[in-house]
Amino acid sequence: MKLTKAQYDEIAQFLGHVQPTRQSLRKLKEKFPSQSQSTLLSIFSQEYQKQIKRTHAKHHTAEAIETYYQRYLNGVMKNAAAPVLLELANEVDFAPSLMARIVLERFLQEKEQTIPSKTFINSMLRDPSQIPDGVLANQVYQCTVNDCCYGPLVDCIKHAIGHEHEVLLREMLLEKNLSFIAEDQLRAKGYDKTPDFILEVPVAVEGHIIHWIESKASFGDESSHQAYLQDQFWSYWNRLPYMAMYICRSSF
User: Fold this and answer.
1) How far is Cα 194 from Cα 104, in angstroms, rounded to an integer?
2) pLDDT tens for residues 169-200?
3) Cα gap 69→105, rounded to integer Å
4) pLDDT tier at 233 (50, 70, 90 boundaries)?
5) 44, 15 contact by CB (below 8 A)
6) pTM above 0.90, yes or no
7) What is the longest distance spanned by two Cα atoms in the chain?
8) In whole angstroms, what is the distance from residue 4 CA to residue 15 CA?
9) Residue 112 class from Cβ within 10 Å (0-12 exposed, 13-18 middle, 19+ buried)?
């Protein structure tokens, strides 16, 4: 089902007034029942990520970091079992996984008397059992499993969905008896930036001649498409015309 620009704008406007929670996603589905959950989830995720990028800086000032850390300490002192970090993230409208990262980094700075590496932080976020404080480990775990747009769990799901879509696209090309060269084959030949598939025999789609296809497991809104144009598509276009496929898929 095609989504018009007006329909997309209406969905995006609705999302500007709700928090990024599973409850909000259910409200979104009730508001727009004609749209698939996968489409709504994809738009939901992208609109929230835009919001986080706009407000990211204010959550990373020295004052904000210290405020969040002290609120965390005071909260767990009163009730260590309560979802202190998760509730704090929701209160200030920030992604739970990113809030967990801020507090974890501040905790490690105090404990180790040095700034921890990004690799070290990422490892603990993926496996909170490595965190040398049981209460904080539980708080970080609660944040990562309840974050529907950021964090190691979401990254893993996105990676799996992206790979699945590439496999499905390959199967579709084979079903249509289209001869192609896949990305892994191109990289083996020494190519740097490559599309997912180059068609050895171009095809016509809605009056356009297509030489290669790039699959994206996301919603292709205007800003995302412009970013992909700058980062990838123009370098491909300089060689051959293309087709970009944005495939929405639910991770819930």
Assistant:
1) 37
2) 899 999 999 999 888 887 887 776 778 888 88
3) 10
4) low
5) yes
6) no
7) 67
8) 17
9) exposed
CA distances (Å), origin 125, targets 21, 72, 142, 209, 231: 20, 17, 11, 45, 28
Q: Where are the beta strands (DSSP E) in the chain?
A: 180-182, 197-205, 208-216, 242-246
Which distant-in-sequence residues (6+ apart) come within 8 Å of 218 by Cβ?
Answer: 42, 45, 46, 224, 246, 247, 248
Which two three-digit tokens encode residue 2? 């095609």
Coil, helix or strand for 210? Answer: strand
Find where tokens 């296809």 sit: 213
Burial zone of 57 (CB within 10 Å; 0-12 exposed, 13-18 middle, 19+ buried): exposed
Which of the two residues, 139 and 221, has the higher pLDDT score?
Answer: 139
For 125, the enclosing helix (H) or strand (E) is helix 118-126
Tokens encoding 70: 């002290």
Distance CA 195, CA 241 (A): 11
Residues 73, 223: Cα–Cα separation, whole Å? 39
- Side-chain half-sphere exposure of 128, counting CA atoms within 13 A: 20
No. of helices (H) and no. of strands (E), the chain: 12, 4
Which is nearest to 51 in space by CA: 24, 71, 78?
24
Distances 49 to 27, 43, 151 between C-alpha atoms, Å? 19, 10, 12
**Total residues belonging to the chain:** 252
Is 181 within 8 Å of 205 (Cβ atoms)? no
DSSP label of 82: S
3-state class (DSSP) for residue 247: coil
Structure tokens at 111: 């404990």
With contact defined as beta carbons under 8 Å apart, do 31 and 13 qualify? no
Residue 48 clears pLDDT 90, i.e. is over it: no
